[in-house]
Amino acid sequence: MGSHPIRDGKGHRAYRRQQAALKRRTKVEKLPCGYGSRSGWGCGEQIDPDLPSTHRRSFTADHDEAIANGGKLVGQVLVPMHRDCNARKSNHAPVEIWEAS
After folding, report:
1. How many Cα atoms occupy the beta-carbon half-sphere of 89 within 13 Å?
2. pLDDT < 70: residue spans in the chain
3. Which residues contact residue 9 at a Cβ distance below 8 angstroms, ignoring those fewer than 6 apart?
4. What is the pLDDT of residues 70-88, one digit of tens each?
5. How far is residue 97's CA from residue 24's CA, in Å, rounded to a whole number?
6. Buried b / exposed e across 69-96, counting CB within 10 Å, b at 16+?
């Protein structure tokens, strides 16, 4: 058995179905980009799901826990994001900045 990237392995089809469902939901409900939404900062702009996948502001589905950090391909909540926001986030967890009192 050869090595396959995780995105092409077990659960790949289930992930693609979940991603497609989120893209349809993003289009119908006009969901905003989820980059930084957990901490109250970030993009939050509307995503145009009809842009070509190579466009920097196109739709992508981000995993709650990055696959590189031990997250699973399927069974996670997917969050809609712009391609460039997702790249900026990379495999980092959302960061919250607290001011000292």
Report:
1. 30
2. 1-10, 37-42, 65, 67-71, 91-101
3. 73
4. 667 777 788 899 999 888 8
5. 33
6. eeeebeebebbbbbbbbbeebeeeeeee
Q: How many CA atoms lie within 13 A of 12 on its CB side?
A: 7
- CA-nearest of 26, 53, 44 to 85 is 44
Domain boundaries, the chain: 6-89
Q: Which of 4, 5, 13, 26 is nearest to 78 (CA)?
A: 26
Give the pLDDT score at 7.
53
Amino acid symbol at 1: M
- Would you call 33 exposed, middle or buried from its count of C-beta atoms within 10 A (0-12, 13-18, 19+)? buried
Q: Give the number of other CB atoms < 10 A from CB of residue 43.
A: 19
**Global pTM value:** 0.70
